[in-house]
Amino acid sequence: MKKQIKLLHPCTDLKPIINKYIHDKWQQTWNSKTQNKLYQIYPTIPSYSTLSSSYQRKDQIIYNQVRIGHARLTHSYLTEHTDPPKCTNCNQLLYVKHILTEYNSYDQTQHQHCSINDIKNIFNHTPSQNILNLQL
Ligand SMILES: [Zn+2]
Question: What spacing in Å lies between the alpha carbon of 109 and ligand 1's midpoint?
């Protein structure tokens, strides 16, 4: 016969405590991954989704790809078996960070969509739709 345990509080009271414990463990692991591209943007794990679920799945995927620096514009060469794209302005390899923060001739479009020139702050303070509008 199973022994029943009487809890003083309902199980739902434990949920926020368990969530905090998991979040803290995740943050500890994350803190050891400082070379991860996403760590530069999110050193602190957000306790909420970074892109609203009201966005279509396709846009959520594109947004997350841009966040980790793997946009179609910068990485499609891998599947197309071509040379990596280079910046038409300075001829260096084209990276998302370069496009969003350093690419001077892109300024007009960049500032139209992202008025901040620090990669971390772009994703933390620029509306998601503005980043999606860049169509990277
Ligand atoms: Zn450039």
Answer: 14
